[in-house]
Design a protein that fits this description.
Aminopeptidase, 34% strand
Length: 161
């Protein structure tokens, strides 16, 4: 399953994760406001291994994350993408704090689903993360169940376009 390596949305440019993006990836996951919802510690080793997994997924599966930049000036906004999991394909996204509350996560998620709409897409977010839950609902996800991941209560959503 190969998906578009680059695409644009009204305000953003997306490019599949490539080695030159490692500095953006690291900056995103070193930001405590981005990783605050994750019970796990984001060490330099964990960040590097996560980035390497993204490169591998693109090379072997043709599926992964894209980096998003503003079309107007090229500033890095965040990442969004898909990863193959036993229970389906999971949508994920992360936005730098200075770009939150501007509809960027919604635009990124719509863009990803528009170029790579697999059949069984799901997403998880913290049960208490109201903004992320709104993003998922805006792009067509429906709440399915509550659960736990890494000791954190989660809301499970399924995409129903």
């Amino acid at each position: 399953m190969r998906h578009a390596e680059a695409f644009v949305t009204p305000r953003l440019s997306a490019d599949r994760v490539r080695f030159p993006h490692v500095h953006w990836w690291a900056a995103l996951f070193r930001n405590p406001d981005v990783t605050a919802s994750d019970a796990r510690v984001w060490t330099a080793d964990r960040i590097a291994k996560g980035f390497a997994r993204q490169l591998f997924r693109w090379e072997t599966l043709g599926l992964g994350y894209w980096v998003f930049t503003l079309r107007a000036d090229g500033r890095f906004v965040g990442i969004a993408g898909l990863r193959d999991r036993p229970e389906g394909v999971e949508l994920g996204y992360a936005v730098l704090p200075e770009f939150r509350r501007r509809g960027m996560a919604t635009e990124m998620a719509r863009g990803v689903l528009g170029v790579a709409p697999p059949a069984r897409v799901f997403a998880r977010t913290r049960l208490t993360h109201a903004a992320s839950r709104r993003v998922l609902e805006k792009v067509g996800f429906k709440f399915e169940a509550e659960g736990w991941e890494d000791g954190t209560p989660q809301a499970l959503y399924r995409w129903r376009p």
